[in-house]
Amino acid sequence: MKAQAQLEFPLFKGEALTQLPDDLFIPPEALEIFLEDFSGPMDVLLYLIQRKDIDILELDVSEITGQYIQYIELMDALKIELAADYLVMAATLAQIKSRMLIPQSEEEEEEQDPRSELIRRLQEYQRYKSAAESIANLPRVDRDFFLASAALPVFKEQQPQVEISAKELAAIFQETSTRPKFSAHHEIYFEELSTQDRIALILSILNTSNVIQFFQTYQKKEGKQGVVVSFLASLDLAKDGYVELIQNKDSSQLYLKSTTRGFH
Amino acid sequence: MSIEQNLTNIVESILFGAGRPIRLSEIRTLLGSQNIDADLPNIKIALNELEDRYVMSALEIKEVASGYRLQIKNEFGDFLYPLWNDNSNRLSKALMETVSIIAFKQPVTRGDIEEIRGVSVSTQIIRSLLDREWIKASGYRDVPGRPTLYETTNIFLNDLSLKSLNDLPPLPEALPVEGALDQLEVG
């Protein structure tokens, strides 16, 4: 099953499946992989206990505390993001250890074993941890088995990943910040050439000849503005049905053909 | 084509085209919409007929929490896995522990989960489980702060090919801690 391909930390009693040596002298990178795989302080603690192959009930708090602190120091040294929970556990262990070291007086005989709460929680955690491992090994859709379907697939809109390097980002910022401010000033000019006048002009030309070419409707010296005004006038005339706009192919010459001969 | 054969083919087409598990009652409704009057036992017979037909094929009919669905037999999974391998199915131990606790103790709050796991439950894990629709918010616990209660969904069961929560691997028995500790020497 594919679950085995995942990084599993085998923690079953009696099965010494991890190869962490006692002196922890293994390459830090490899250790990092091990440590990152713990799901929390309880997991680390269970691992430490089970590595010793001892029953939780025979927990030697003193020894485990030492090992546990060694582990979190290592995790810290390896810059593994250490959740506060790990430190809470260390404090709990230290507290239990200290309580166990204090000699018991007669009156305190009845007091609970200081380890009992920790052991209860460890055992409770162990139940769910073991159940989680069983559930993780159940056949899972799209991992161990696949559905047969002829249904239309539901397409999720893929958000394209934006990949940009810091260098590119800096260049873009540079370019943006030095961009001229086109929007700084805005003045409105009255149009020198009016569309209305141009419509009248075109109609008067069309009075003399039935078909004209578009370039005949403006003068070169009018520039871009002249072309635009003529074009707007032509569209207006076409819309109202006075002319037909004819163009054989894209980008070929545009013709204006009068539909109302004898207009005026 | 006889009516029975026809019904079997219609049921097959529904299973194929649904793209999700479908209940016998839904199949009956779909048949009814075409004025085919079939009762649930008849539909079940058609499903059994299909199962017989699929014995020699790569397909099988599976009953899961949300009904019946058509799937490719597990033994062919290895051929398909490379086609679908997108790593989204690699679930962390922390996520599996979280969903297991929700499954066995539902409805639970984040606090309940943290109590057992001894580590704060990351928002990312809850979000990931919600995105998968393996869990859903089922309400609020009536205590200060009104924490959200979570429970598992049918999709969680479907994805693991289970019919109900009872089909989950059993939670190991709780051990009687106090009694056992009494026998220990303190100190």
Description:
The complex is a heterodimer of chains A (264) and B (187). With 264 residues, chain A is mainly alpha-helical. Chain A has two domains: 2-102 and 113-136, no CATH class; 195-258, Structural maintenance of chromosome 1. Chain E (Arc Repressor Mutant, subunit A, Orthogonal Bundle). Chain A has helices at 28-36, 41-51, 61-77, 84-101, 116-136, 166-177, 195-208, 223-239; strands at residues 146-147, 211-213, 243-246, 255-258. In chain A, α2 packs across α3 (61-77) and α3 (61-77) runs antiparallel to α4 (84-101). The radius of gyration of chain A is 42 Å and the shape is elongated. The longest helix of chain B has 16 residues, at 3-18. In chain B, 49% of the residues lie in helices and 12% in strands. In chain B, the strands form two sheets. Chain B has a two-stranded antiparallel ribbon with strand order 1-2. A two-stranded antiparallel sheet of chain B has the order 3-4. Chains A and B meet through α2, α4, α5 and β1 of A and α1, β2, α4, α5 and α9 of B. β1 (146-147) of chain A pairs antiparallel with β2 (67-72) of chain B.
Topology of helices and strands:
The complex is a heterodimer of chains A (264) and B (187).
Chain A: H1 28-36, H2 41-51, H3 61-77, H4 84-101, H5 116-136, E1 146-147, H6 166-177, H7 195-208, E2 211-213, H8 223-239, E3 243-246, E4 255-258
Antiparallel strand pairs in A: 2-4, 3-4
Helix pairs in contact in A: 2-3, 2-5, 3-4, 7-8
Chain B: H1 3-18, H2 24-33, H3 40-54, E1 59-64, E2 67-72, H4 77-84, H5 93-105, H6 110-117, H7 123-131, E3 135-140, E4 148-152, H8 154-159, H9 177-182
Antiparallel strand pairs in B: 1-2, 3-4
Helix pairs in contact in B: 1-3, 5-7
